[in-house]
Design a protein that fits this description.
Helix content: 25-40%
Largest sheet: 7 strands, parallel
Oligomer: single chain
Strand order of the largest sheet: 5-4-1-6-7-8-12
Radius of gyration: 19 Å
Strand content: 15-25%
Number of helices: 12
Number of domains: 2
Order of helices and strands: EHEEEEHEHHEHEEHEEHHEEHEHHH
Distance between the termini: 32 Å
Structural class: alpha/beta
Shape: globular
CATH class of the largest domain: Alpha Beta
CATH architecture of the largest domain: 3-Layer(aba) Sandwich
CATH superfamily of the largest domain: NAD(P)-binding Rossmann-like Domain
CATH topology of the largest domain: Rossmann fold
């Protein structure tokens, strides 16, 4: 079978491709286990040469907002799709129309392309904890907490969740959505996500680089290690649709930590390494947006469905060091 990962050349997409290549198989249409013979990384950005994490994957440069481009990648009945591609939070706040074209129309294009292959293939859509907001984030948010997103990014992802439900209800696509906590520790350069500080406060000091954190030290939000995130996405693809139920969006298990707690974990794990200095200088926009995001998650449903969960921030940092600092 073929696996298409939109946004596939991004950090999570590359890690997912690596894990799928190592597995060699995945649940296909109808749930039968099938061997993977092709992995396609569909993205607006096409790096030169093979992707290090998945050298045998095919990189296809394309535009989510272009139906023909998307359909050219999602083109056979024995297929599974992981729809990770999106404009991130900071970009969405700056470009409302672009966010609509990429995150809303793009998601519909992916669903329509999957529908057109005629096999009701499995599709995993990645949503965000930013789908929650306002007064509804004072308590741990669960799958049945009212959504009241306070950003264009969160609104676009909430619309995607509703589309996933309806395409699944109609039997067009066996779609399901993983509502992700902030993924850490992302390797490479920071992107325009307003949550990117959560990786930077770990990544930059470990590289010997001083970092100015744009939120207060007590700022807390749910996060997930990248290996656990990949495990959750694969588990979501493997779950039977009846097991998930009519509400096809599941909160992935988040681990809540403040900047202070993350830095304490970094110093515990780093030992005698020389670290860059972290200082706090709150950015008004970042502080305002992040203050409206959930601080903690209710993980009971994800636990019932068998999604993996991180044990602590220390282990997340240890994994990053092993893969990207000492590896």
């Amino acid at each position: 079978m073929k696996v298409v990962i939109t946004g596939g050349t991004g950090f999570v997409g590359r890690r997912l491709a690596r894990a799928l290549a190592a597995r060699g198989e995945l649940a296909g249409p109808g749930g039968s286990r099938q061997s993977i013979d092709e992995i396609v990384l569909f993205d607006a950005v096409a790096p030169e040469g093979p992707v290090p994490e998945a050298p045998d994957a095919t990189v296809v440069k394309g535009d989510l907002a272009d139906p023909a481009s998307v359909a050219g990648a999602i083109d056979r009945p024995d297929i599974a799709v992981f729809h990770l591609g999106a404009m991130v939070s900071g970009g969405c706040e700056e470009d409302f129309d672009g966010a609509w074209q990429v995150n809303v129309e793009g998601t519909r294009n992916v669903l329509e392309a999957a529908r057109a292959v005629g096999s009701a293939p499995r599709l995993v859509f990645t949503s965000t904890m930013g789908a929650f907001g306002g007064d509804y984030v004072r308590e741990p948010v669960g799958d049945f907490t009212k959504q009241s997103p306070q950003t264009t990014y969160g609104v676009s992802k909430s619309i995607g969740e509703l589309l996933v439900n309806d395409y699944a209800r109609k039997g067009f696509v066996d779609a399901r959505a993983a509502r992700l906590a902030t993924v850490i520790v992302r390797a490479g350069k920071p992107n325009m996500a307003l949550s990117s500080y959560a990786s930077a406060v770990i990544r930059e000091p470990l590289s010997g680089i001083d970092y100015v954190c744009p939120v207060a030290a007590e700022t807390s939000m749910p996060m997930i290690g990248y290996e656990t995130c990949v495990g959750c996405l694969i588990r979501m693809a493997e779950l039977d649709g009846d097991e998930i139920g009519p509400d096809r969006t599941v909160n992935v298990p988040g681990l809540s930590a403040s900047v202070t707690e993350m830095l304490a974990a970094l110093h515990r794990v780093a030992g005698d390494r020389s670290l860059g200095k972290v200082t706090i200088d709150a950015d008004p926009l970042v502080a305002k947006v992040t203050s409206g995001w959930p601080r903690d998650t209710d993980n009971r449903r994800s636990a019932q469905l068998g999604l993996p969960k991180d044990r602590n921030v220390d282990e997340i940092i240890q994994t990053y060091i092993g893969d990207y600092v000492d590896g």
